[in-house]
Design goal:
Layout (H helix, E strand, L loop, with lengths): L1 H43 L8 H7 L4 H7 L6 H10 L3 E4 L3 H6 L6 E2 L6 H10 L5 E5 L7 H11 L4 E4 L3 H7 L10 H8 L1
Parallel strand pairs: 1-2, 1-3, 3-4
Length: 191
């Protein structure tokens, strides 16, 4: 009798699996069909999601600076020079304070990506939300300017562009720099 009992106990999980097998197969088939349909729809959409690392990199999704430049939200050296000459935009340096004090673009104001609060408070008291801004950082792979740009947009600034070449391109082009603290900090020091 105990052998029959043991045999029945061994078969119980197998019987349960057989009862669930059609449901599991149906669920697996639905998941497979949904995945195939999703990939097919993604492939024919004009702005489908990239499905590989190489595609992400080529599309610029992994590089926020490239993505913003591709969207027309970046400016080149000539545009920065023209904005400075014509006074049509304010330059904002997103680099850490010590980098700014070592040599920003002439006339730039400091809003470091890693210390946004107090510098932004000073800045917003002087510059209204409609002011055209050009944000830069070190250039190359630096994304500090993207972080500051996003924060300025969150605070209501509406015309915020990036200078992706940043300080490095400015310096390599032999453009003027100044040293010392932010002009708004100097102004506070006089008051």
């Amino acid at each position: 009798g105990s052998d029959l009992y043991a045999e029945g106990e061994r078969r119980r999980p197998l019987m349960a699996l057989l009862r669930w097998k059609p449901r599991l197969l149906t669920a697996a088939l639905l998941a497979l069909c949904g995945s195939v349909l999703g990939v097919a729809v993604n492939a024919v959409r004009p702005h489908g999601l990239p499905l590989s690392y190489a595609a992400l990199k080529q599309k610029g999704t992994l590089d926020p600076v490239k993505r913003l430049v591709d969207e027309g939200k970046g400016v080149g050296l000539a545009a920065v020079q023209a904005a400075m000459r014509d006074g049509t935009a304010i330059l904002v340096d997103a680099r850490p304070r010590q980098d700014y004090e070592a040599g920003p673009l002439v006339g730039a104001f400091s809003i470091p990506f890693n210390d946004f609060g107090a510098p932004f408070e000073r800045f917003q008291r002087v510059f209204p939300r409609e002011t055209s801004l050009i944000i830069y950082c070190s250039g190359g792979t630096c994304t500090d300017s993207v972080e500051v740009r996003d924060k300025l947009l969150e605070q209501g600034y509406v015309d915020v562009k990036l200078f992706p070449g940043g300080w490095k391109e400015w310096r390599n082009a032999g453009q003027p720099q100044e040293k010392g603290p932010d002009p708004l900090v100097r102004q506070e020091g006089l008051n």
